[in-house]
Amino acid sequence: MESSPPTITVQVKFAGRTIPVEVPAAATTAELKRLLQPLTNVLPRGQKLVCKGKVLQDAATLSSMQVVDGSKVMLIASQGLHQGDGPLTKHSSSSATSVTKTSNIKEYQTQKPETIAGKIHAARWKVTGVAALHDYDLKELPEEVWYCGPSIRILDASNNCIKEIPHKISALKSLNKLLLTANDIDDENISWEGLSCLQKLLNLSLSQNRLVSLPSTLGSLASLRELRIANNRLDNLPIEIGSLKHLQILIANNNRITTLPSSIGDCESLTEVDLSSNLLTELPEAFGKLYNLKVLHLRNNGLTSLPSTLFKKCMQLITLDLHGTEITNDILRQVEGWEEFNERRRQKHQKQLDFRVGSSGVFDEGADDDNRRR
Protein backbone atom coordinates (compact mmCIF):
# COMPACT_ATOMS: atom_id res chain seq x y z
CA MET A 1 0.00 0.00 0.00
CA GLU A 2 1.28 3.46 -0.90
CA SER A 3 2.46 5.40 2.14
CA SER A 4 1.29 8.93 2.90
CA PRO A 5 3.76 11.75 2.21
CA PRO A 6 5.66 12.91 5.30
CA THR A 7 4.22 15.85 7.24
CA ILE A 8 5.47 18.42 9.71
CA THR A 9 3.65 20.44 12.36
CA VAL A 10 4.28 24.18 12.34
CA GLN A 11 3.44 26.30 15.39
CA VAL A 12 1.86 29.51 14.08
CA LYS A 13 1.63 32.42 16.50
CA PHE A 14 -1.22 34.81 15.82
CA ALA A 15 -3.36 37.22 17.85
CA GLY A 16 -2.21 35.97 21.25
CA ARG A 17 -2.55 32.26 20.53
CA THR A 18 -0.52 29.41 19.04
CA ILE A 19 -2.07 27.37 16.22
CA PRO A 20 -0.53 23.97 15.41
CA VAL A 21 -0.83 23.34 11.66
CA GLU A 22 0.05 20.03 10.03
CA VAL A 23 1.34 20.40 6.46
CA PRO A 24 3.16 18.18 3.96
CA ALA A 25 6.89 18.45 4.42
CA ALA A 26 7.19 19.51 0.77
CA ALA A 27 4.49 22.22 1.01
CA THR A 28 5.04 25.79 -0.11
CA THR A 29 4.33 28.91 1.90
CA ALA A 30 1.24 29.52 -0.26
CA GLU A 31 -0.15 26.12 0.74
CA LEU A 32 0.42 26.90 4.42
CA LYS A 33 -1.44 30.18 4.01
CA ARG A 34 -4.43 28.41 2.48
CA LEU A 35 -4.56 26.09 5.49
CA LEU A 36 -4.41 29.07 7.83
CA GLN A 37 -7.29 30.92 6.18
CA PRO A 38 -10.18 29.02 7.87
CA LEU A 39 -8.27 28.93 11.16
CA THR A 40 -7.66 32.68 11.34
CA ASN A 41 -10.21 34.29 8.99
CA VAL A 42 -7.28 36.08 7.29
CA LEU A 43 -7.14 35.80 3.51
CA PRO A 44 -3.90 34.33 2.08
CA ARG A 45 -2.91 37.62 0.46
CA GLY A 46 -3.43 39.34 3.79
CA GLN A 47 -0.97 37.03 5.56
CA LYS A 48 2.70 37.76 6.14
CA LEU A 49 4.51 34.75 7.61
CA VAL A 50 7.81 35.28 9.39
CA CYS A 51 10.19 32.60 10.64
CA LYS A 52 13.51 33.37 12.33
CA GLY A 53 13.31 36.98 11.18
CA LYS A 54 12.74 36.10 7.50
CA VAL A 55 9.54 36.66 5.52
CA LEU A 56 8.42 33.40 3.89
CA GLN A 57 7.91 33.80 0.14
CA ASP A 58 4.76 32.27 -1.36
CA ALA A 59 6.46 30.20 -4.05
CA ALA A 60 9.22 28.87 -1.79
CA THR A 61 8.94 25.50 -0.10
CA LEU A 62 8.93 25.50 3.66
CA SER A 63 12.01 23.29 3.74
CA SER A 64 13.97 25.78 1.60
CA MET A 65 13.13 28.48 4.15
CA GLN A 66 14.37 26.25 7.01
CA VAL A 67 10.85 25.66 8.33
CA VAL A 68 10.88 22.20 9.88
CA ASP A 69 8.78 20.16 12.29
CA GLY A 70 8.13 22.24 15.41
CA SER A 71 9.22 25.53 13.84
CA LYS A 72 7.57 28.68 15.18
CA VAL A 73 6.09 30.98 12.56
CA MET A 74 4.58 34.41 13.22
CA LEU A 75 1.51 35.49 11.25
CA ILE A 76 1.06 39.22 10.65
CA ALA A 77 -2.34 40.12 9.20
CA SER A 78 -2.87 43.06 6.83
CA GLN A 79 -5.74 45.29 7.84
CA GLY A 80 -8.95 44.70 5.89
CA LEU A 81 -7.87 41.50 4.17
CA HIS A 82 -10.03 39.09 6.12
CA GLN A 83 -13.20 37.09 5.80
CA GLY A 84 -16.15 36.79 8.15
CA ASP A 85 -16.31 39.14 11.12
CA GLY A 86 -12.54 39.54 11.13
CA PRO A 87 -9.48 37.71 12.43
CA LEU A 88 -10.11 35.11 15.13
CA THR A 89 -8.32 35.99 18.35
CA LYS A 90 -7.96 34.07 21.59
CA HIS A 91 -10.87 36.06 22.98
CA SER A 92 -13.26 35.36 20.09
CA SER A 93 -15.25 32.30 19.08
CA SER A 94 -16.93 31.07 15.93
CA SER A 95 -20.14 32.75 16.92
CA ALA A 96 -21.30 35.96 15.37
CA THR A 97 -20.36 39.22 17.03
CA SER A 98 -22.57 39.74 20.04
CA VAL A 99 -24.86 42.70 19.85
CA THR A 100 -25.37 44.93 22.84
CA LYS A 101 -28.96 46.00 23.00
CA THR A 102 -29.96 49.29 24.58
CA SER A 103 -33.55 50.25 25.27
CA ASN A 104 -34.80 53.76 24.70
CA ILE A 105 -36.23 55.68 27.62
CA LYS A 106 -39.99 55.38 27.40
CA GLU A 107 -42.89 56.23 29.62
CA TYR A 108 -43.53 52.51 30.17
CA GLN A 109 -39.91 51.55 30.85
CA THR A 110 -40.46 50.58 34.51
CA GLN A 111 -43.69 48.71 33.89
CA LYS A 112 -44.04 44.99 33.34
CA PRO A 113 -44.43 43.72 29.76
CA GLU A 114 -48.00 42.63 30.38
CA THR A 115 -48.82 46.17 31.54
CA ILE A 116 -47.23 47.69 28.44
CA ALA A 117 -49.48 45.64 26.19
CA GLY A 118 -52.74 46.33 27.98
CA LYS A 119 -56.25 46.63 26.71
CA ILE A 120 -55.70 50.15 25.39
CA HIS A 121 -52.77 48.97 23.25
CA ALA A 122 -54.66 45.93 22.01
CA ALA A 123 -57.59 48.09 20.95
CA ARG A 124 -55.23 50.39 19.05
CA TRP A 125 -53.54 47.43 17.33
CA LYS A 126 -56.90 46.15 16.12
CA VAL A 127 -57.73 49.53 14.60
CA THR A 128 -54.35 50.33 13.02
CA GLY A 129 -53.12 46.79 12.34
CA VAL A 130 -49.72 47.81 13.68
CA ALA A 131 -48.25 46.38 16.90
CA ALA A 132 -45.18 48.49 17.74
CA LEU A 133 -43.31 46.77 20.55
CA HIS A 134 -39.71 47.63 19.74
CA ASP A 135 -37.33 48.80 22.51
CA TYR A 136 -39.52 47.72 25.43
CA ASP A 137 -37.07 45.27 27.02
CA LEU A 138 -39.62 42.48 26.57
CA LYS A 139 -38.74 38.93 27.58
CA GLU A 140 -41.67 37.50 25.62
CA LEU A 141 -44.41 38.65 23.28
CA PRO A 142 -47.49 39.79 25.27
CA GLU A 143 -50.63 37.64 25.22
CA GLU A 144 -52.60 40.57 23.82
CA VAL A 145 -50.74 40.10 20.52
CA TRP A 146 -52.38 36.73 20.02
CA TYR A 147 -55.80 38.08 21.01
CA CYS A 148 -55.62 40.56 18.14
CA GLY A 149 -55.00 37.69 15.73
CA PRO A 150 -55.88 38.48 12.10
CA SER A 151 -56.12 42.22 12.82
CA ILE A 152 -52.34 42.66 12.97
CA ARG A 153 -50.54 43.35 9.69
CA ILE A 154 -47.24 44.60 11.13
CA LEU A 155 -45.51 43.31 14.26
CA ASP A 156 -42.32 45.11 15.25
CA ALA A 157 -40.72 43.56 18.35
CA SER A 158 -37.14 44.53 17.51
CA ASN A 159 -34.46 45.33 20.08
CA ASN A 160 -35.89 43.40 23.02
CA CYS A 161 -34.79 40.32 24.97
CA ILE A 162 -37.34 37.92 23.49
CA LYS A 163 -36.19 34.30 23.57
CA GLU A 164 -39.16 32.45 22.09
CA ILE A 165 -41.46 32.71 19.09
CA PRO A 166 -44.23 30.19 19.95
CA HIS A 167 -46.57 28.33 17.61
CA LYS A 168 -49.23 30.88 18.49
CA ILE A 169 -47.60 33.17 15.92
CA SER A 170 -49.70 31.21 13.40
CA ALA A 171 -52.77 33.11 14.66
CA LEU A 172 -51.55 36.28 12.90
CA LYS A 173 -52.95 35.23 9.54
CA SER A 174 -52.88 38.74 8.04
CA LEU A 175 -49.27 39.49 9.01
CA ASN A 176 -47.27 41.19 6.24
CA LYS A 177 -44.24 42.34 8.18
CA LEU A 178 -42.54 40.59 11.13
CA LEU A 179 -39.55 42.40 12.63
CA LEU A 180 -37.65 40.51 15.33
CA THR A 181 -34.20 42.07 14.94
CA ALA A 182 -31.87 42.17 17.95
CA ASN A 183 -33.41 39.64 20.34
CA ASP A 184 -32.17 36.37 21.91
CA ILE A 185 -33.97 33.87 19.67
CA ASP A 186 -32.22 30.55 19.00
CA ASP A 187 -33.05 27.51 16.88
CA GLU A 188 -34.76 25.63 19.68
CA ASN A 189 -37.22 28.36 20.56
CA ILE A 190 -38.63 29.53 17.26
CA SER A 191 -41.68 27.75 15.84
CA TRP A 192 -41.04 27.56 12.12
CA GLU A 193 -44.17 25.45 11.86
CA GLY A 194 -46.11 28.44 13.17
CA LEU A 195 -44.28 30.86 10.90
CA SER A 196 -45.02 28.70 7.87
CA CYS A 197 -48.72 29.43 8.38
CA LEU A 198 -48.14 33.12 7.63
CA GLN A 199 -48.85 32.93 3.92
CA LYS A 200 -49.24 36.71 3.56
CA LEU A 201 -45.84 37.46 5.10
CA LEU A 202 -43.78 39.76 2.86
CA ASN A 203 -41.00 40.91 5.16
CA LEU A 204 -39.20 38.79 7.78
CA SER A 205 -36.30 40.15 9.84
CA LEU A 206 -34.42 37.85 12.22
CA SER A 207 -31.08 39.65 12.18
CA GLN A 208 -28.96 39.88 15.33
CA ASN A 209 -30.25 36.77 17.06
CA ARG A 210 -28.62 33.41 17.86
CA LEU A 211 -29.74 31.28 14.94
CA VAL A 212 -27.40 28.54 13.75
CA SER A 213 -29.54 27.08 10.98
CA LEU A 214 -32.68 27.71 8.96
CA PRO A 215 -35.12 24.83 8.36
CA SER A 216 -36.60 23.56 5.13
CA THR A 217 -39.95 25.08 6.11
CA LEU A 218 -38.51 28.49 5.21
CA GLY A 219 -39.39 27.59 1.63
CA SER A 220 -43.10 27.50 2.47
CA LEU A 221 -43.22 31.28 2.97
CA ALA A 222 -44.20 31.65 -0.67
CA SER A 223 -45.09 35.36 -0.55
CA LEU A 224 -41.84 36.51 1.08
CA ARG A 225 -40.25 39.55 -0.56
CA GLU A 226 -37.57 40.45 1.96
CA LEU A 227 -35.51 38.21 4.27
CA ARG A 228 -33.03 39.68 6.75
CA ILE A 229 -30.91 37.18 8.71
CA ALA A 230 -27.66 39.09 9.24
CA ASN A 231 -25.50 38.82 12.35
CA ASN A 232 -26.47 35.31 13.40
CA ARG A 233 -24.39 32.11 13.48
CA LEU A 234 -25.68 30.53 10.28
CA ASP A 235 -23.29 28.24 8.41
CA ASN A 236 -25.54 27.55 5.39
CA LEU A 237 -28.85 28.31 3.74
CA PRO A 238 -31.43 25.55 3.12
CA ILE A 239 -31.94 24.15 -0.36
CA GLU A 240 -35.62 25.12 -0.04
CA ILE A 241 -34.70 28.81 -0.27
CA GLY A 242 -35.10 28.26 -4.00
CA SER A 243 -38.87 28.02 -3.46
CA LEU A 244 -39.00 31.72 -2.59
CA LYS A 245 -39.83 32.84 -6.12
CA HIS A 246 -40.90 36.34 -5.04
CA LEU A 247 -37.91 37.06 -2.79
CA GLN A 248 -36.35 40.38 -3.81
CA ILE A 249 -33.94 41.20 -0.97
CA LEU A 250 -31.70 38.75 0.91
CA ILE A 251 -29.53 40.22 3.67
CA ALA A 252 -27.34 37.51 5.25
CA ASN A 253 -24.09 39.29 6.06
CA ASN A 254 -21.96 38.59 9.16
CA ASN A 255 -22.69 34.90 9.57
CA ARG A 256 -20.49 31.80 9.15
CA ILE A 257 -21.86 30.67 5.79
CA THR A 258 -19.38 28.46 3.95
CA THR A 259 -21.47 27.28 0.99
CA LEU A 260 -24.63 28.27 -0.83
CA PRO A 261 -27.11 25.86 -2.45
CA SER A 262 -27.39 26.02 -6.22
CA SER A 263 -31.13 26.41 -5.71
CA ILE A 264 -30.53 30.08 -4.90
CA GLY A 265 -30.55 30.53 -8.66
CA ASP A 266 -34.28 29.75 -8.56
CA CYS A 267 -34.96 32.92 -6.54
CA GLU A 268 -35.69 34.64 -9.83
CA SER A 269 -36.95 37.91 -8.32
CA LEU A 270 -33.80 38.72 -6.33
CA THR A 271 -32.56 42.27 -6.89
CA GLU A 272 -30.27 42.69 -3.87
CA VAL A 273 -28.08 40.14 -2.07
CA ASP A 274 -25.70 40.87 0.81
CA LEU A 275 -23.39 38.00 1.82
CA SER A 276 -20.58 40.15 3.19
CA SER A 277 -18.41 38.89 6.05
CA ASN A 278 -19.05 35.18 5.73
CA LEU A 279 -16.72 32.26 5.00
CA LEU A 280 -17.50 31.72 1.33
CA THR A 281 -14.76 30.54 -1.02
CA GLU A 282 -16.98 30.23 -4.10
CA LEU A 283 -20.45 30.99 -5.42
CA PRO A 284 -22.61 28.48 -7.30
CA GLU A 285 -22.80 28.94 -11.07
CA ALA A 286 -26.56 29.26 -10.60
CA PHE A 287 -26.00 32.91 -9.62
CA GLY A 288 -25.97 33.54 -13.36
CA LYS A 289 -29.71 32.77 -13.39
CA LEU A 290 -30.51 35.81 -11.22
CA TYR A 291 -31.44 38.00 -14.19
CA ASN A 292 -32.97 40.74 -12.01
CA LEU A 293 -29.97 41.08 -9.69
CA LYS A 294 -28.82 44.70 -9.31
CA VAL A 295 -26.78 44.75 -6.08
CA LEU A 296 -24.36 42.08 -4.84
CA HIS A 297 -22.26 42.57 -1.69
CA LEU A 298 -19.53 39.95 -1.11
CA ARG A 299 -16.98 41.89 0.93
CA ASN A 300 -14.74 39.99 3.39
CA ASN A 301 -15.07 36.44 2.11
CA GLY A 302 -12.47 33.98 0.89
CA LEU A 303 -13.69 34.13 -2.71
CA THR A 304 -11.14 33.40 -5.43
CA SER A 305 -13.44 33.51 -8.46
CA LEU A 306 -16.92 34.48 -9.65
CA PRO A 307 -19.52 32.41 -11.52
CA SER A 308 -18.49 32.46 -15.18
CA THR A 309 -21.86 33.79 -16.38
CA LEU A 310 -22.43 36.44 -13.69
CA PHE A 311 -21.66 39.48 -15.85
CA LYS A 312 -22.87 37.94 -19.09
CA LYS A 313 -26.34 36.96 -17.85
CA CYS A 314 -27.03 39.31 -14.93
CA MET A 315 -27.53 42.26 -17.22
CA GLN A 316 -29.03 44.51 -14.52
CA LEU A 317 -26.12 44.15 -12.09
CA ILE A 318 -24.65 47.60 -11.35
CA THR A 319 -23.25 47.32 -7.81
CA LEU A 320 -20.65 44.70 -6.86
CA ASP A 321 -18.53 44.80 -3.70
CA LEU A 322 -15.58 42.39 -3.60
CA HIS A 323 -13.28 44.30 -1.28
CA GLY A 324 -11.40 42.07 1.14
CA THR A 325 -11.61 38.98 -1.07
CA GLU A 326 -9.03 37.16 -3.17
CA ILE A 327 -10.60 38.67 -6.31
CA THR A 328 -8.66 41.78 -7.29
CA ASN A 329 -9.49 44.32 -9.98
CA ASP A 330 -7.08 42.63 -12.40
CA ILE A 331 -8.90 39.31 -11.95
CA LEU A 332 -12.28 41.03 -12.24
CA ARG A 333 -11.40 42.53 -15.64
CA GLN A 334 -10.76 39.06 -17.05
CA VAL A 335 -14.30 37.80 -16.36
CA GLU A 336 -16.42 37.55 -19.50
CA GLY A 337 -18.91 40.38 -19.73
CA TRP A 338 -16.92 42.71 -17.46
CA GLU A 339 -16.80 45.53 -20.03
CA GLU A 340 -20.59 45.77 -20.26
CA PHE A 341 -20.93 45.58 -16.48
CA ASN A 342 -18.31 48.27 -16.03
CA GLU A 343 -20.12 50.55 -18.50
CA ARG A 344 -23.43 50.14 -16.62
CA ARG A 345 -21.98 50.98 -13.23
CA ARG A 346 -20.06 53.98 -14.60
CA GLN A 347 -23.25 55.33 -16.13
CA LYS A 348 -24.94 54.97 -12.73
CA HIS A 349 -22.04 56.76 -11.06
CA GLN A 350 -22.24 59.60 -13.56
CA LYS A 351 -25.96 60.01 -12.94
CA GLN A 352 -25.29 60.24 -9.22
CA LEU A 353 -22.74 62.97 -9.88
CA ASP A 354 -25.10 64.81 -12.23
CA PHE A 355 -27.88 64.85 -9.66
CA ARG A 356 -25.57 65.00 -6.62
CA VAL A 357 -27.20 61.90 -5.12
CA GLY A 358 -25.50 59.27 -2.93
CA SER A 359 -21.96 59.69 -4.24
CA SER A 360 -18.75 61.15 -2.83
CA GLY A 361 -17.46 61.69 -6.36
CA VAL A 362 -14.92 58.86 -6.12
CA PHE A 363 -15.60 55.87 -8.37
CA ASP A 364 -15.29 52.54 -6.55
CA GLU A 365 -13.78 49.84 -8.74
CA GLY A 366 -15.53 47.22 -6.59
CA ALA A 367 -12.46 45.20 -5.62
CA ASP A 368 -8.97 45.71 -4.22
CA ASP A 369 -6.00 46.50 -6.46
CA ASP A 370 -3.23 43.97 -6.94
CA ASN A 371 -0.82 46.36 -5.26
CA ARG A 372 -2.49 45.50 -1.95
CA ARG A 373 -0.70 42.20 -2.19
CA ARG A 374 2.58 42.29 -0.40
UniProtKB/TrEMBL annotation:
<dbReference type="InterPro" id="IPR029071">
    <property type="entry name" value="Ubiquitin-like_domsf"/>
</dbReference>
<dbReference type="Pfam" id="PF13855">
    <property type="entry name" value="LRR_8"/>
</dbReference>
<dbReference type="InterPro" id="IPR050216">
    <property type="entry name" value="LRR_domain-containing"/>
</dbReference>
<keyword id="KW-0433">Leucine-rich repeat</keyword>
<dbReference type="Pfam" id="PF00560">
    <property type="entry name" value="LRR_1"/>
</dbReference>
<protein>
    <recommendedName>
        <fullName>Ubiquitin-like domain-containing protein</fullName>
    </recommendedName>
</protein>
<dbReference type="InterPro" id="IPR001611">
    <property type="entry name" value="Leu-rich_rpt"/>
</dbReference>
<dbReference type="InterPro" id="IPR003591">
    <property type="entry name" value="Leu-rich_rpt_typical-subtyp"/>
</dbReference>
<dbReference type="Pfam" id="PF00240">
    <property type="entry name" value="ubiquitin"/>
</dbReference>
<feature type="domain" description="Ubiquitin-like">
    <location>
        <begin position="8"/>
        <end position="79"/>
    </location>
</feature>
<dbReference type="InterPro" id="IPR000626">
    <property type="entry name" value="Ubiquitin-like_dom"/>
</dbReference>
<keyword id="KW-0677">Repeat</keyword>
<dbReference type="InterPro" id="IPR032675">
    <property type="entry name" value="LRR_dom_sf"/>
</dbReference>
<comment type="function">
    <text>Leucine-rich repeat protein that likely mediates protein interactions, possibly in the context of signal transduction.</text>
</comment>
<comment type="similarity">
    <text>Belongs to the SHOC2 family.</text>
</comment>
